[in-house]
Amino acid sequence: MPHTLAELCITAAAEAWRHDGEVLATGIGLVPRLAAGLAMLTFNRDLLMTDGEAFLVSEPVPVGPRQGYEPRIEGWMPYRRVFETLWQGRRHAMVGPTQIDRTGAANISCIGDHRRPRAQLLGVRGFPGNTIHHPNSFFVPSHSKRVFVEKVDMASSVGYDPARFRPGVRRDFVDLRLVVTNLAVLDFQGPDHTLRLASLHPGVGVDQVQEHTGFELALRDPLPTTPTPGAEALRLIREVLDPHDLRAGVFDA
Amino acid sequence: MDKRITPGDAIAELRDGMTLGIGGWGARRKPMALVRELLRSPVKDLTLVSYGGPDVGMLCAARKIRKLVFGFVSLDVIPLEPHFRRAREKGEIEVMELDEGMLQWGLRAAAMRLPFLPTRVGLACDVERLNPDLKTVRSPYADGELLLAMPALELDVALCHVNQCDARGNSQILGPDPFFDDLFCRAARRAYVSCERVVPTGELWKAGPPQTIWMDRSLVTGVVELPGGAHPTSNAPDYGIDGEHLRTWAGAAREEGFADYRGRFVDLPSHAAYLEAVGGAERLAALPLPVF
Fold first, then answer.
1. ipTM of this complex
2. Which domain holds residue B48?
3. What distance in Å separates the CA atoms of residue B279 and residue B239, rounded to the nearest whole number?
4. Is B97 in Cβ contact with A123 (below 8 Å)?
5. Which of A11, B114, B175, B189 measures 20 to 30 Å from B152, CA to CA?
6. β partners of residue A200
7. How many CA atoms lie within 13 A of B127 on its CB side?
8. Model confidence over A3-23: pLDDT tens digits?
């Protein structure tokens, strides 16, 4: 069976963790979680991962109904220990921003005026601490100008805008990696670490991506096509990581 | 020293304008029976410190919050808390929005009687811009790094819910994560802990190793026995999240909705009446533990 867009994105997103070594992989949301799991089962077996709650597991827990599956517990990682881990820098998280701008500042807090928002969202959660301490990547299921904005309404996270760093504030742990969307893979290797289009998904054009982005994107040159998932990646996604096909609902309108 | 008290006794200690900390996290192990008791009291103008869930939503709906110190408010199974959203979108509450780790650091500072703890969390993003009262401090050593001085979050009262306590206040958490309940208790002048059951001291370490006794009795002012006291939030391993009830609660975020909800679930003569209204102990025991 040919791959789906979700399977292509999971495989592309897994690449975020390829060279990280023995760090805690945190994937918030279905595609990031499956991507971290794929990385752990293939090219980075040293990754640490939790069961989504407080236990470290030696292999990813399949998503959906467990049907008798027992997590392979190898340790304890309550939230207090996650903070210790992340402040030490030994983590790479992939998250879903509501907005993100070309310098990588992301918003999950609110839309509109912070004192009286038009739309109250979650709050900054752990984004400020995550982004000033360890590598971070992003997954955006619907690449649009509503997400890729000129300026975020609220900067919940740290990006590469030098104006936001007062003299003496350490910025050397800021490390934004991949942004995987339904159209493309982007990274922060544009001028001054701005967003750069790094690969186009099969059948997607540069203009199409640019039209759905609220600012000018730097372009990788040459600009490759996002690789399609290989047979082993597809087998792991379909049979091991997501046997109930929850990924089928990721790109529903 | 027998610290067992009623829910009314605990809530009677609160005064208008106090700073209240609530333990738990999102839809997990929130002292909801004590929160409902608070709704039945006239106390208002609270500054609330919480890793927010339906506790925050309920107190927003009841207009008891003047200021909220938070990193997020979520019902877990329902990502956004609609009563909190309404309060924010109507500009009804003041907020101090912090990274989750900064909130922890504020509790730790208060617990250690320090004025602040240094961190780089909150710098270079809008947390520092939107909290102009937060100050920075420069490392006095050769590095000279500019750090954020997270101020102590001193609490007048903390409310937590755990699995079991003894009558002197030794409090045991048997679920996978203690969250930061011990820090809430340390940061507070007085801490009230509700629990599924009060047991003889010697029974505590039989249910779990001593490492699970997260608050020693010196941190606990009063113990309230409230089986099902976290409902509709979970209290692993005793019961899971009541998703159906949370959907009912979320659906009440509309005109007349909160009044209806109060009538059915809050303005009841006792916690036992509440448990009956939500399906009884058998229903709670059947709620599956959350799987993430």
1. 0.96
2. 7-97+153-282
3. 13
4. yes
5. B175
6. A184, A225
7. 39
8. 999 999 999 999 999 999 999
